[in-house]
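S.,

Sequence below, as promised.
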Amino acid sequence: MLRIAVPNKGSLSGPAADMLHEAGYQQRRESKELRIVDPENEVEFFYLRPRDIAIYVSSGRLDIGITGRDLLIDSGAGAEEILPLGFARSTFRFAAKPGTATGIADLKGRTVATSYEGIVAGHLADSGIDASVVHLDGAVETAIELGVAEVIADVVETGTSLRNAGLEVFGEPIMKSEAIVIRRTGADAGDAAEPKVQQFLRRLQGVLVARTYVMMDYDCRVEQLEKAVALTPGLESPTVSPLHNEGWVAVRAMVPAKEAQRIMDDLYAIGARAILTTAIHACRL
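The prediction came back faster than expected:
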């Protein structure tokens, strides 16, 4: 069986379980379950702390895992990203008291508090900045107020918690993170698990595409077909079928979901009618 690590809690857990369910895999019914077997799909899921997943995967005990890019890099484990999943996006940045720093060069000789020591230390080293890094678990906003550090580095979403602590972000983002699928570094096509790994990735890619596109159907006159097809080119080419009424055709194509309403307006403007969109629940490209 393919052995897969899944986050057991936190912002990664729920969306990961939803994606796996959409991909046709069984998921646990209770949060206390640490392991389940999906015999029909020949997969065994292990529910682990998100911070530990890269370590387990790098050991080779588990074939692949779902975790955050930030957690993978911070761990320093021998695992690599093989598929971004598009959820749990975040930006990692420096913050300090207003007016005390404007860029990474201002960190020279200072102390930075963070929960992601591996990321910050690596970023500072790559930038040639000699600064101290203090590891703290949990909220790091109070580190400056309590004199533990002069700068913090943390995940920033809206920035509200930083502003409430009297801090502001500065400089360029350290990194951008999201949920990813990881695999042990060096795993290759010769591994026995390779066919199942590729099948798993195809399923998740199918979910990503299904979430990104909708299917659009409409009728248009033959003389407007080229204009209509230019608006809805599909992935390879749209499907065009003749209608019973002479001079009309039915067209079907996948279009980006976020552009669907605009495309419907444009199609209507050139004379297309009976324009419908339907959700895509699964696909293979």
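The mean pLDDT is 93.

Coffee later?
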